[in-house]
């Protein structure tokens, strides 16, 4: 029997078939890409399905995609690695620089590629670099990981902090070795991926780890978790954003110093008049479906309960990311304003009575601080990591991180204007006592360098 001839149509159909898992992984690893900060986000994708008890309502459900995680984990394992010799040379550099007390004239920052300079993590990194430039005359260099073009990063940094306008920004793609970087007095890594190039850069006199969360928790227990956790054992001195993170870092790597975050007081401040009057309430929801640690799904279900209970007596607004409420069953429940300019965020907070923001990792998050400074009543999940700042029933309300308990806590604040007024008053008193940024950074430099 003759072999059938393959038509052009058949060839096109064959080429259009989905790639196998092996092919997808191979193609993923072959492409030059920016190191991914949160691989777990790609472990899940949304699929439209009809809920069995919804009377035909179409909803979106989350479906696990192991192939995507595997591709990301393989990428990370391929690019973030070290040998025994790397460790020996790193620790030799640390021993040699242990007595270095300055003066610090040059600082090399290893940073991930960033798209917006006002998000909490990168904003704090740039703020500290700005402080070093203004108060100590330090010349900052930023090695931006995983990219070839850093002009936009430089522009955004200067926009947020004009003192950084004369800083150097250099690309650090995967194919560029740290040996190509100039020597500096200090090298500072700012995320777990950036700790790997700093490990291998032994032309800095002292190595520092700028830690702003326990980043292994950004991933499932697995390959990427292990790669992230190991960076805390590299021996760098830590600069930790909040005292609880200092305690965590010191379990792994010895010495660290903590700073207590603050806010821009000329941006985040309370409104002039009384707001906690009347029966209608406006609630701000920090909603970011792509921010796994912010507990979006639990909060979304809680807000559906709240809206059913109070109807038009409560208005719920969200900001922080671009997403469609209808995709999450929140149409008619939440109005999403997307990502707002920095100062407009504070303007929004001043119009709200209550702020709902969840955080499932050890960092407290900047949202409670900013909301408190604007006189909002903060509702958040309770955690020992937050108790250095947040006091349940005194300057905020803690809620167990399940929908009904969050809804009950929000309802308590909605129905009690006297409680809101008292919580707001105490929160503003606490905010007034927070040290300013320069004072905290002065203390950090004093502990690290005796300045």
From TrEMBL:
InterPro entries: WsaF_C, WsaF_N. Residues 1-23 are annotated as: Disordered. GO terms for molecular function: polysaccharide binding. SUPFAM superfamilies: UDP-Glycosyltransferase/glycogen phosphorylase (SSF53756). Residues 282-410 form the WsaF C-terminal domain. Residues 180-235 form the WsaF N-terminal domain. This is Glycosyl transferase family 1 domain-containing protein. The lineage of its organism: Bacteria, Bacillati, Bacillota, Bacilli, Bacillales.
